[in-house]
Write a structure and sequence with these properties.
The protein is α/β, with parallel strands linked by helices. The chain has helices at 9-19, 40-55, 74-86, 102-114, 125-130, 149-160, 210-221, 236-246, 269-277, 292-298, 302-312, 323-337, 548-556; strands spanning 27-30, 59-64, 96-97, 118-121, 170-173, 188-192, 206-208, 225-229, 253-257, 261-262, 320-321, 339-341, 343-344, 347-352, 360-365, 375-380, 383-387, 407-410, 415-423, 429-437, 454-455, 458-459, 464-471, 498-505, 517-520, 524-528, 537-543. The protein has a seven-stranded mixed sheet with strand order 12-25-26-27-23-24-13, covered by helices on one side.
């Protein structure tokens, strides 16, 4: 068959394998641990694994690595499935689990024991760590390393039967305590955990380690290409060693690529869990979180995330990706898809003193990038709200918005001129009075005079009150994972990552469903929060209009 054109080094390897009949089809897998919500780094891996399967007319399995019952939860399982499907991918067949293979892994472990390749060790975790050695010094062999096969089988079966307490024994592979690869120094294969598993209940009290379960699960499923991030490169000799002991058929080929590191973000599940548990954010789907659930709630789209993954590409070396690139991707996507509306975040009341008490309707363009989006009618009346920043009593030079005696264009409608300013007893501006020119309804003056400023507005009588959540980056430091001495990564949390304001928006948004995206003209892109209801509409700011990445790209060109 004619092979697809390779666009990265992984596809080049797959093409070679297909050409040389190493495999006849492509089967990949996405194997997350159900101990937290997926984040943008997982999204890149999802796009890669499922994307390769689609490109080669192959299959991609979803396998949950549920080998640590103390940290896993059904909530995480359901969130993982939801996120993958939301991104537009579907795994082959039923969801698979490492726990599906617990019996087989246990039997294979006994095969290793009978070959003299594994033993039960009574050392504590601290004792094992103390005897592992260093990258330049060999480790020390366990005093239990040379137990007989019969004793090891007996002890291992008793471990399985729950006769020993947690931490009292482990099953370790017998490899080489002097290996330069620390992962080959008699790694732990099983540990005792008297914990209830969310799928297997209390059937098991010994659980395989990731290193023991991972490669064997790939082998069981017939995975042809096991695509991992770079930190697993040093684990590959161990996976190969394990397969040497039990494999009788084709093996998966492990290929490593660089994981995603995003500026002003943390990707560690441990750190993300702390943010949730310690109340720095409002749950895993907080729009400031880099989780797929958080990005979805913030207003990110599957297409934007997939395009981001494509632009980042597949590399062999770790690097830091500018978060501005992710923001650029959502701007580009929403610019084409999001309908425009006018919203005032910091309202200032405007009374058009010479306008009648009538109501008229003007026509607004829903999306200039998409003619099929059509137009909408916007109510216009005597009393309006404008942005407080769009008026200055004593403006500097080149200030083209509203000021005493100055004239501006109201978006989609008339020219207005400020004729009076009302203030409270403290000197704060409470209201401005303007006149309008009825001959400028189309936004142009018949006498040819021009104005340089156009501002947005909403009719006070018709405006919908809205809660607007202005989200910003969660951290002030480019790489918050690099913690200075005496500090914690939470010390770099941006105190202004969320500001809540109450504004007014045109009635076009009434009844909008959760996750509907809009561009608030001149302000940015916003999405309807799922907590909204008929009496309270909430918008989350997805991203501002300013696109620093696009400017950088233009300069480089």
């Amino acid at each position: 068959m004619e092979l697809p054109q390779a666009t990265n080094f992984i596809e080049e390897i797959i093409n070679e394998d297909l050409k040389n009949n190493v495999c006849s089809s492509v089967i990949t897998r996405f194997p997350p641990e159900p101990n937290g919500y997926l984040h943008i780094g997982h999204a890149k891996s999802i796009c890669l694994n499922f994307g390769i399967a689609q490109k080669y007319n192959g299959k991609c399995n979803l396998r949950l690595d549920d080998t640590n019952p103390e940290k896993e939860d059904v909530e995480y399982v359901e969130s993982i499935k939801k996120d993958i499907q939301w991104l537009g991918f579907q795994w082959d067949g039923e969801v698979r689990h490492a726990s599906d293979y617990f019996e087989k892994l246990y039997e294979w472990a006994k095969v290793l024991i009978k070959k003299g390749k594994a033993y039960v060790c009574d050392m504590s975790a601290e004792e094992v760590a103390a005897t592992r050695g260093t990258p330049t010094e060999p480790g020390k062999e366990s005093p239990y390393r040379n137990r007989s096969v019969e004793e090891n089988i007996d002890l291992f079966e008793r471990m399985k039967n729950g006769q020993f307490p947690d931490g009292s024994k482990t099953l370790r592979a017998k490899i080489d305590m002097s290996s330069p690869n620390m992962h080959m120094r008699d790694p732990v294969m099983y540990r005792i955990k008297h914990a209830t598993h969310h799928r297997t209940g209390d059937r098991w009290c010994i659980y395989p380690t990731y290193d023991w379960a991972h490669g064997q699960s790939d082998y069981i499923e017939g995975i042809t290409h096991s695509i991992c991030t770079l930190e697993f490169e040093v684990h590959r000799p161990l996976y190969d060693w394990f397969l040497d002991q039990i494999a009788t058929g084709p093996r998966p080929r492990q290929i490593e690529f660089a994981r995603l590191n995003l500026s002003y973000t943390v990707m560690s599940k441990r750190m993300l869990l702390r943010l949730v548990q310690e109340g720095f954010v409002n749950g895993w789907d907080d729009p400031r979180m880099p989780t797929i659930a958080g990005l979805r709630r913030r207003g990110y789209t599957p297409d934007a995330i997939k395009n981001f993954a494509k632009l980042v590409g597949v590399a062999k070396k770790d690097s830091m990706v500018d978060i501005a690139l992710l923001e650029h991707c959502i701007r580009e996507d929403l610019n084409k898809k999001a309908n425009r509306v006018m919203c005032v975040l910091n309202p200032l009341k405007v009374v058009i003193v010479n306008y009648p008490d009538d109501i008229e309707y003007v026509e607004g363009i829903n999306n200039p990038e998409d003619p099929s989006a059509g137009t909408r009618t916007i109510p216009f009346s005597k009393v309006l709200y404008i942005e407080r920043d769009d008026f200055m009593e004593n403006p500097p030079k080149k200030y083209y918005r509203l000021s005493p005696g100055a004239e501006v264009r109201l978006r989609y409608t008339y020219f207005i001129k400020c004729v009076n300013v009302l203030k409270d007893s403290n000197g704060n501006i409470t209201e401005i009075h303007c006149t309008y020119d009825p001959d400028t309804k189309n936004g142009y003056a018949p006498d040819g005079r021009k104005v340089k400023g156009t501002i947005h507005w909403v009719s006070a009588q018709h405006a919908i009150h809205a809660e607007i959540r202005l989200y910003d980056r969660l951290f002030t430091k480019e790489n918050p994972s690099e913690v200075e001495e005496g500090k914690d990564f939470t010390d770099y949390i941006n105190p202004d990552s969320l500001k809540v304001v109450h504004g007014y928006i045109e009635p076009y948004v009434r009844g909008a469903k959760a996750y509907t995206n809009f561009q608030f003209e001149r302000l940015g892109y916003f999405t309807v929060d799922p907590d909204s209801h008929d009496d309270r509409i909430i918008f989350n700011r997805t991203v501002t209009l300013k696109d620093t990445w696009a400017k950088i790209a233009q300069k480089e060109e």
